[in-house]
Amino acid sequence: MPIYTLGLESSCDETGVGIIEGASKILANKIYSQSEIHEKYGGVVPEIASRNHLKKFTPLLEEALDEANLSLSDLDVVGATYGPGLVGPLLVGLSLGKSLAYSLEVPFYGINHLEAHVFAHFGPGKVAPPFLALLVSGGHTSLILVREWGEYRRLGETRDDAVGEAFDKVGHMTGIGYPAGPKIDKLSKDGDPSSFAFPRPMLDEGLDFSFAGLKSAVSREVNGRENFFLPDLLASFQEAAVETLTEKAIRAARQEEVGHISVMGGVSANSRLRERLSAAAGEYGLTTSFPPLALCTDNGAMIGITAAHKYKNREEPSGHELGPSPSLNLG
After folding, report:
1. Could you give all domains of the chain from N- to C-terminal order, each with its CATH number?
2. Tell me, what's the pLDDT at 222?
3. How far apart, in whole angstroms, are the C-alpha atoms of residue 5 and residue 313?
4. How many CB atoms lie within 10 A of CB 283?
5. How far apart are CA 237 and CA 242, in angstroms?
6. pLDDT at 86
7. Pick from 151, 119, 147: nearest CA to 135
8. Residue 330 three-state SS
9. Which residues of 93-103 are buried (b: 16+ CB within 10 A; e: fewer)?
10. For residue 225, how many other CB atoms are within 10 A of its CB?
11. Do the Cβ atoms of 175 and 216 come closer than 8 Å?
12. Quick one: DSSP state of residue 138?
């Protein structure tokens, strides 16, 4: 009999419900994005995000079960994000997951959101450890050595802003709105990335990142010029960020002697990062992989895949006293 796993995601402003058959077959992956709600605030308001998770989880769960042609009683495992993220939103999904598992009398697993992004690459025909994970999102920028599924060593991370946060702040200062990542990606296609000489902070220093200086350089240009062609500025900013991510990822892969780089998190959807990293890695005989766009942003399917893996490997389920861990890390 197949095993069916429910995954719940609510670490920030996406409400995600995924249903997994076996280890990694996605039967349903329902996502509700609150980006339009938070756009007028220039970022996520935790209380508003929490209230919307409360409203959306039940209808999304019903839609997912219908699409998978299952009922609640068919579920064998439940997983929910318990960190990192915003404490209010985390509490909503975590409470629902524990309640469902308790009522259904099935194992419950609290899932590290960062580990779940790694498991977006898990499945037949996909990558196999060891590989280098480049985790790039609104809250995190990290280089992680994945020795085995579930075994990690953090090699580098941002010392200030995450790269996705830098994208959103540049979007705010240029007036293009939130979330800025997809908009910058699109507008940059009409710009010249050599128009502005933006810095590449810490490019030649180890494996840590820093994007605060790049963000400040963009701010100085925006505030110091009366006229400029916005696509040029955005393309130049994007190129600086992408070059930094590319150089550091290749350096880490070569240092650790692994032949593959997997990119994950919301910024992995960026078309220029996909293009430049893949080309540069190929010059060194390295291969790359990016998740499908539906698994780049926060989603319940990746939570379910991670929980299914833990269940299959007979890991101890989480206790129902588990609470949210906003500052949880990986490796």
Report:
1. 4-119+295-312 (3.30.420.40), 131-290 (3.30.420.40)
2. 93
3. 14
4. 8
5. 9
6. 95
7. 119
8. coil
9. bbbbbbebbee
10. 10
11. no
12. S
Pair type for strands 77-83 and 108-112: parallel
- Nearest CA-CA partner of 20 in 303, 297, 305: 305
Closest CA to 61 of 98, 17, 95, 15: 17
Residue that the structure tokens 């450890």 belong to:
129
- State the Cα angle at 70 between 67 and 74, rounded to 5°: 150
AA letter at 61: L
pLDDT tens for the chain, residues 1 to 331: 899 999 999 999 899 999 999 999 999 999 998 877 887 777 788 889 999 999 999 999 999 999 999 999 999 999 999 999 999 999 999 999 999 999 999 999 999 999 999 999 998 778 999 999 999 988 899 999 999 999 999 999 999 999 999 999 999 999 998 889 999 999 999 999 999 999 999 999 999 999 999 999 999 999 988 889 999 999 999 999 999 999 999 999 999 999 999 999 999 999 999 999 999 999 999 999 999 988 999 999 999 999 999 999 999 999 999 999 999 999 7
Long-range contacts for 48-55 (Cβ within 8 Å, ≥24 apart)? Answer: 49/12, 49/13, 49/86, 49/88, 49/89, 50/86, 50/88, 50/89, 50/91, 50/92, 52/13, 52/15, 53/10, 53/15, 53/89, 53/92, 53/93, 54/92
- Please count the other Cβ atoms lying within 10 Å of the Cβ belonging to residue 220: 10
For residue 87, how many other CB atoms are within 10 A of its CB?
Answer: 16
Phi and psi, residue 147, nearest 5°: -75, -45
